[in-house]
């Protein structure tokens, strides 16, 4: 397994307030080089990236200020502990009546030669960015599920899409966890590295913190890992409520 330098977080509540003392403590001593956050307002995503020089401590403070002032119930955060190759790696697409965003921690081709995840002639927008290609592939298979299944279940369409992309990509790419959100529900997929979950007690409403980063000092986070017999685990959240803890079969 690669030494992952990018980490992803989900902050989610039923109230439009994402300020978190625990999240502040979790990242305050990290050497963050760059961050990107998507904040949802009434189902519409706003993607913001750090503007500070990576060698200054104001990078973290800028992120915390952004979260503190956000009047939102869902935010998906990504930060790099090394200088990223591409500055922004959270992308959005509108399909099935929602504005979807993808926040991925790591994806890398196993081939020495470049191979797009999805053929160029099937892309909505031609790009060499692997993260954006992954979102387009997820979209393709979610729509495929909706066209073929009488159930029309949003959760099952995500599960189906993730199962398909794991079948297609595991021999060609090495990749880790990702968070898919539509402004109302958040879908967290764990493939190799676990997630760490905490429900922070606040007044008047609790806040969910889901993290790919593990701080040994934060011992009250719950470790969530996939089963050895499964390809991946799918977690679905509405606000701070976990509504599905399921598996993506091999």
Q: How does this model look, in words?
A:
This protein has 250 residues and is an alpha+beta fold. Helix content is 22%, strand content 34%. The protein has four helices and 15 strands. The strands form three sheets. A seven-stranded antiparallel sheet has the order 3-2-4-1-12-11-13, with helices on one face. A six-stranded antiparallel sheet has the order 5-6-9-10-14-15, with helices on one face. A two-stranded antiparallel ribbon has the order 7-8. Strand 9 and strand 10 form a beta hairpin. The longest helix is centred in the middle third of the chain and has 19 residues. It is globular and about 45 Å long. The two termini are 19 Å apart. The mean pLDDT is 87.
């Amino acid at each position: 397994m690669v030494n992952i330098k990018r980490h992803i977080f989900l902050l989610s509540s039923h109230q439009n307030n994402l300020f978190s003392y625990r999240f502040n403590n979790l990242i305050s001593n990290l050497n963050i080089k760059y961050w990107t956050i998507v904040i949802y307002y009434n189902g519409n995503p706003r993607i913001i990236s750090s503007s500070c020089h990576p060698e200054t401590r104001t990078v973290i403070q800028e992120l915390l200020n952004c979260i503190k002032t956000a009047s939102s119930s869902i935010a998906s955060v990504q930060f790099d502990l090394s200088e990223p190759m591409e500055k922004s790696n959270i992308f959005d697409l509108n399909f099935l009546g929602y504005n979807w965003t993808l926040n991925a921690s790591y994806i890398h081709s196993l081939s020495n030669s470049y191979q797009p995840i999805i053929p160029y002639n099937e892309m909505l927008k031609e790009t060499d960015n692997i993260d954006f290609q992954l979102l387009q592939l997820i979209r393709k298979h979610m729509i495929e599920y909706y066209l073929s299944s009488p159930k029309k279940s949003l959760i099952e369409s995500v599960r189906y899409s993730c199962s398909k992309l794991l079948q297609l990509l595991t021999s060609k790419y090495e990749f880790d966890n990702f968070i898919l959100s539509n402004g109302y529900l958040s879908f967290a997929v764990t493939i190799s590295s676990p997630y760490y979950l905490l429900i922070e007690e606040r007044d008047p409403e609790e806040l969910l913190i889901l993290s790919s980063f593990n701080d040994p000092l934060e011992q009250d986070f719950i470790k969530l890992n996939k089963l050895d017999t499964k390809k991946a685990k799918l977690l679905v959240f509405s606000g701070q409520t976990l509504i599905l803890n399921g598996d993506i079969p091999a």
